[in-house]
Amino acid sequence: MSEDDAVRATNDDAASCKRAAVQLGYWKDPYINYFMRASERKAPEINRGFYVRVRGVHSLLKQFLEITKCQGQIVNLGAGFDTTYWNLKDENLAPKSFIEVDFQGITAQKMYYIQHRKHLLDKLTADQVDVQISSTDLHAGQYHIVAADLRNVGELKKKLGECGVDFNLPTCFLTECVLVYMPPEASEALLRWIPEHFKSAFFVNYEQVNMGDRFGKVMIDNLRARGCGLPGVQYCQNLESQKQRFLSTGWTSADAINMVDVYRSLPQSDVQSFNPPPILVDLGIELFSHYCMVWACCRPPLGLDLVIYK
Ligand code: SAM
Q: 235 falls in which pLDDT band (50, 70, 90)?
């Protein structure tokens, strides 16, 4: 298995964890089963971890959509089988443009599923938009899926151009466990490119942190055992280094929060329905402390900033 295959395998892992949690009712997502058919049960702390991740990311995305009155753009980098667009569309919250980018092998699989699931195709054509679909790319009105290697900013720029991206519109970029799999110089080039080219940009990043301790090492071994770990991955050491990677690449503000704090900031009524026995609470907290959310802004419209948790 090549290194890139191991990175692509992280998508199957994320999608199957999301599917398993949705199946147990942690949150509603009527689309994930179109992209990930069956899923074995996951440990309760994994389910809760994905629940907190999805709630945290959506809180920030929804604020961006509110701030921009759905007239901005969302670019999901390393989107994998993410279903956010489909769910936002159902809530009448889809932005002016929603673009997903991933390796060709992943977008080709996504394209296959879209072409072979009538419900998905019908959704795309419901607005009478012209749907252009190739073996790897899709352009359907406001929704685009394109294949590009994020380590190559030139290729990304070309693909975003094919989606009609507007550099003058407020644009929110999202990465969930993606930057960490890129060489640091490549992720730095990507982060630097955005504020240089977009008039007003937001960034939401969800990622591992504090991986140097004993629990972190066990997590890395588990990832490798599931075929989706890479030797030599350089994790950000702490929340400060997560913020600094943005502040040192042209972003004007950056905040970072540990997922333990996101978990604690969720409405208690939500969390209580999944309350596990105390021993599993501890295990969950240990796991959450190794993930974080970072959000950064560059020239946000009227000084509006995102906050967690609203
Ligand atoms: N964001 C999705 C989610 O949360 O469900 C998928 C997350 S998965 C952990 C990471 C994704 O990033 C994979 O789909 C992988 O193919 C993609 N990725 C990582 N490095 C990439 C690169 N250099 N170019 C394009 N995609 C990349």
A: confident
Coil vs helix vs strand at 174: strand
ipTM of model:
0.99
- The model's pTM: 0.95
Query: Do 71 and 97 meet the contact criterion of CB atoms below 8 Å apart?
Result: no
Report whether residue 47 contacts ligand 1, using a CB cutoff of 6 Å: no
Two tokens at 32? 């994930």
Pocket test for ligand 1, best of 31, 102, 156 (most atoms within 8 A of CB): 102
Does 174 contact ligand 1 (Cβ within 6 A)? no
Ligand 1 atom nearest 206 alpha carbon:
4
Give domain 3-97+174-303's CATH architecture: 3-Layer(aba) Sandwich (3.40)
Higher pLDDT, 305 or 141: 141
Spatial separation of the C-alpha atoms in residues 290 and 276, rounded to whole Å:
19
Outline where the chain has alpha helix (H).
3-23, 32-35, 44-67, 84-90, 104-116, 118-125, 153-162, 184-197, 214-225, 239-247, 259-265, 268-272, 278-288
Q: pLDDT, tens digit, for every residue of 78-128?
A: 999 999 999 999 999 999 999 999 999 999 999 999 999 999 999 999 888
- Token pair in block for residue 285: 């907290």
